[in-house]
Amino acid sequence: MNLPDYNFTALTPALILSLWAILILLVDLLFGERIQRWLSWLTVAGLLVTGASALSLWNVRAEGFSGMVVLDNFAIVVTVIAMIAGILAVLLSSDYLVDRDLFRPEYFALMLFSITGILLLASGRNLIMLFLGLELLSIPLYVLTGFARPDVQSEEAAMKYFLLGALASSFLVYGIALTYGATGSTDLLKIRDALQNVQVITSTLTLGGLILILVGFGFKVAAVPFHMWTPDVYQGAPTPITAYMSVGAKAGGFAALLRIMYVAFPQIASYWTGALVLLAIATLVVGNLLAIQQSSLKRLLAYSSIAHAGYILVGLAAGNNRGVAGALFYLLAYAFTNLGAFGIMIALSKKGEEADSIESYAGLSSRQPWLALAMTVFMLSLTGVPLTAGLVGKIFVFSAAAEAGLWTLLIVAVLTSVISAFYYLRLVVLMYMRDPINDFGTQVHLTPGVRTALALAVIGTVLLGIIPGNLIDFTNQTLAITTQTLVALVH
Amino acid sequence: MESIFFYATAAIALIGAIGMVLSRNAIHSALFLVLNFAATSVLYLMLNAPLLAVLQVTVYAGAIMVLFLFVIMLLNAENVSVDSHLRWQPIAALILGGLLLVETVVTVGRPLPLNPAGVTPETLNQLADPRVLAQFLFTDYLLPFEVTSLLLLVAMVGAVVLTKARPAQKRDQRRVRFADQVEGSEGASAVMSEPQGENRPVA
Amino acid sequence: MIEFLIEAVIKSAIIVLVLLTSFAYITWLERKVLARMQARIGPNRAAPFGLLLPLADGIKLIFKEDTTPLEADKFVYLLAPILAAVPAFIIFAVIPIGDTITLFGRTITLYLTDLNVGLLFIFSITSIGVYGIALAGWSSSNKYALLGGLRATAQMISYELPFSLSVVGVLMMVGSFSLVDIVKAQNSIWFVILQPVAFVIFMICAAAEVNRSPFDLPEAEQELTAGYHTEYSGMKFALFYAAEYIKIVAMSALAVVLFFGGWQGPPIPLIGSIPIIWFVIKVFIFLFAFIWVRATLPRFRYDQLMSLGWKVLLPLALANVVITAIAIVLRDLR
Predict the structure, then answer these.
(1) What predicted TM-score, i.e. pTM, was given to this entire model?
(2) Which chains form contacts with chain B, at 3 or more CB pairs under 8 Å?
(3) How remote is the C-alpha of C270 from its chain's centroid?
């Protein structure tokens, strides 16, 4: 039997990360409790190594395992986003867990497995791989959501996430099956080739497959109307997991969607851009409107994450290169900002007393001026105020929509941005303009891990927002190259 | 001959599926599902895919459904009461399911636009040989195959994490279980002691 | 087509008849051997050496009142013994007891069919066998029966894994699932010599799969009365009884096919080389071994059973697979 050339280069980051996860399981087995406090730093080291290995392969276009995976610049950018989300979340986790008697070494292993899933979603070029990547991303997340067991909310969240997630996966599988039936392949390039045929394009199987695939990934990225699980799951899960989930799951889902739409279905772009426009409008409106009336910060951030999925969908719906670049940049900015916001929550929480009520943030600036300032930066960035990463991201995706002539969508997006300012800035107003109502914020947990994470998040948010002109050009060029590698084909 | 056999098997599969949905008793539902799996497996055999047929029985009927049955019996959850506020669901499900059926007939009922991957009876016959299938698994589909094993590892780690008590909880649980037994519980927990030694009830 | 069908029907009928007879006489053998080992005489009333005892047993069971508990789930209660017995018979569809013989000018294979997934077929059928026991325990609406059923289910699921894994080594060496191929591959050397660890694991798991002593917890008299078949009587009980013994024959036959060269053996003086004879002799030795074990070993405790399965046998079986794989690769490289 002749074995083909597998070409492991294409798999380098995912390989390193999954082996590192297994290493963590083994380290725990061999050294037990003695090594506990170093475990989170070991995890961070793994993520750094993985990120470095990915960056070292920039512009090396490697294709491996009979076209199952391809490591192009697009995959590398998504990998970097996943690494940022992972590093920040791990830094926020360790002390949070110890504080609540939740510390277990498997936590970090599961986290790394989940991030491996994102990497596979970013570089998979076969529907089977994308499905497996999605499962590898999700299954550890189901477990991590229920990590605070026997806390009832956490258990409920895990159950809900698991059942609905399994349902969404079944939609995806059905969609893949229909696509295979119509085109005779699960390889994205071969699907593209098959779609040259008019009969295939007009086949209801193709359309059905496309829609079901959209549903499957739409659930993962929390797009309306597949968003029902989001608030409850975000609220029930341990806060660092919520933070990771809000960015990681989105990055994975959007990466896969981008690749499928741009590589396999460009022939029928008119079909899916229409669907994505509708999804985006629904997501923007519902997410932003429901966020207004929340009194829990976690739920507020949950609805805000739905809304931000909407903005990223605007980039996707544009269907042009600028849209891809915009979606990626938006994800990057969102990673820093959102993890930062959750980080503040974690710093202010202690066991049995989560800093969840928005009202309790009143007067925080007088007690914790630095934390209040950082929170303000994050809120401004989520709103999209100048000098923050959020604005640059929004400009990116909006201009992509304008380029594609999607004026209705653009108007909705701008209007909902204005609405969102209301609930983000309300928190800022509370922190600076009101007096404290109780002893909230007198004690904080600024451990080295949390400190590092918050510093990184603030720096990232601000730096991406104030990058000078030539840096913008640089970013533009990088993203342009990225997009080209996504769309370019190797036959 | 063949078509008679097909319709008979398909009818059995349908009876299994419908019975599973309609029966009130969870054990009966599970058994109907097993019937459905068995019938599906026969359909695979008729399609000249013996490996798939055998795996279908081993994995679904032999492993997964046995575990289902086991859990239902252990939890004594045969009769699940239907909550009153879910009454509208069967009707909605019926309507939507009917729509899906019509849709499926419309989509799949038409001939496929392309012959998927140039499949001919000869290539199908080749696939009946487990060796050919294995060859695919270790060449073109090696990566999905390995990622699946990674997935299973994750699921296993997750299951252990979710079920094994933490040191702090363990002490409390022992106390609770002991109290249970003093009050004269069913005794089921005493017999089905878990494989992990430290979780064994104090008996 | 028709000829093929007739041949298959005749073969099936022969298999079922032979199995039923052997079931009857294995019960007799077991009583005799156990008695001998415990320094008793054993059955000796019905005909010389108690040879007609199985017949007497059968008549007794037929005339016994067939009771059904009031609270029982009637349909499942009826279904359970059938689900227990049928898979036991089906296993023999793929077990080759000999190569081919020529009878009335026709070449006849001494097996019902030679599936290219034969061994997997056997595993899938044994895994179905759990249903009979689990459902019997549940439907009886009796707590001893339920506990017996649950124990049996957990035990069989746990031991299925090392059971299947233990033969993977053999499979890799042969490169085929077909039992005929496996027997033929042992032309020069039996697999028990090449795969001793696999053989030991296989035998332990086989005993656990058929709920035989020392793994007979599901029917441990002292704690569970008779376990899952506590409520059964008459012919329904006989079906469970038959299922258990026929499964023992099946496991013995499987051990012979996988590890002891199947029907192959040197020609015997005086008789010559009748194909089936070696197979029967080898199976008989294994049957004797099963009875011997029952007379010798005490029963496992439940946690011991589980930790043996999961912590010893499963890792051992996995290691065996890995080592075999490495050995095969090294052999091919040479």
Answers:
(1) 0.88
(2) A, C
(3) 32
Q: What's the structural domain count of chain B?
A: 1
Task: Report if residue B145 sits inside a domain.
Answer: no
Residue C49 per-residue DSSP state: G
What is the distance in angstroms between the CA of the first residue and the CA of the last residue of chain B?
Answer: 61
Contact A159, A166 (CB under 8 A): no
Confirm whether B114 is domain-assigned.
no
**Chains A and C physically touch (3 or more Cβ atom pairs below 8 Å):** no
State how far residue C149 is from chain B, nearest Cα, in angstroms.
9
Are A136 and B162 within 8 A, CB to CB?
no
Helices (H) and strands (E) in chain B, counts: 10, 0
CA B174/CA B155 separation, integer angstroms: 27
Residues 204-233 of A with CB under 8 A from B: 204-205, 208
CA C153 remoteness from chain centre: 17
Q: What are phi and psi of C180, to 5 degrees?
A: -65, -45
Cα–Cα distances (Å) from B164 to A31, A114, B199, C46, C309, in that order, read: 19, 21, 8, 57, 19
Residue of C nearest to B62 (CA): C127
**B152 inside domain:** no
Nearest-angstrom CA–CA distance, A368 and A345: 13
Helix (H) or strand (E) holding A71: strand A69-71
User: Cβ contacts (< 8 Å) between A106 and chain B: which residues?
Assistant: 157, 160-161
Amino acid at the residue C159 = Y
**Phi, psi torsion values for A126, nearest 5 degrees:** -140, 140
Q: Report the greatest alpha carbon distance in chain B.
A: 69
Residue A6: list chain B partners with CB under 8 A.
Answer: 142-143
Residue B73 lies in a domain: yes
User: Which residues, 6+ apart, have CB-to-CB distance to B94 below 8 Å?
Assistant: none
B interface with A, Cβ–Cβ < 8 A, is 103, 106-108, 110, 112-118, 135, 138-144, 147-148, 150-151, 153-155, 157-158, 160-162, 166, 168-169
Nearest CA in chain C to B68: C153
Out of B116, B118, B151, closest to residue A181 by CB:
B116
For residue A399, CA distances in Å to A257, A273, B168 come to: 20, 16, 55
* Closest CB to B113 among A133, A182, A208: A182
Instruction: For residue B163, report the phi and psi dihedrals to the nearest 5 degrees.
Output: -105, -25
- Each domain of chain A, given as residue ranges in start order, spans 8-487
Q: What string of pLDDT tens digits covers the 491 residues of chain A? A: 567 788 888 899 999 999 999 999 999 888 877 787 788 899 999 999 999 999 998 888 888 888 899 888 888 889 999 999 999 999 999 888 888 888 888 999 999 999 999 999 999 999 999 999 999 999 999 999 999 888 888 999 999 999 999 999 999 999 999 898 888 889 998 898 888 888 778 778 888 899 999 999 999 999 989 999 999 999 999 999 999 999 999 999 999 999 899 888 888 888 889 999 999 999 999 999 999 999 999 999 999 999 999 999 999 998 888 888 888 889 999 999 999 999 999 998 887 778 888 888 888 888 888 999 999 999 999 998 888 888 888 988 898 899 888 999 999 999 999 999 999 999 999 999 888 877 777 778 788 889 999 999 999 998 888 765 555 566 667 666 666 666 554 33
CA distance B180 to chain C (A): 19
**Cα–Cα dist B147/B154, whole Å:** 10
DSSP C94-154: S--S-SEEEETTEEEESSS---TTHHHHHHHHHHHHHHHHHHHHHHTT-HHHHHHHHHHHH
CB atoms A197 and B150 under 8 Å:
no
- From the list C116, C217, C99, C114, the residue with the least C-alpha distance to C159 is C217
**Nearest-neighbour CA in chain C from B197: distance (Å):** 8
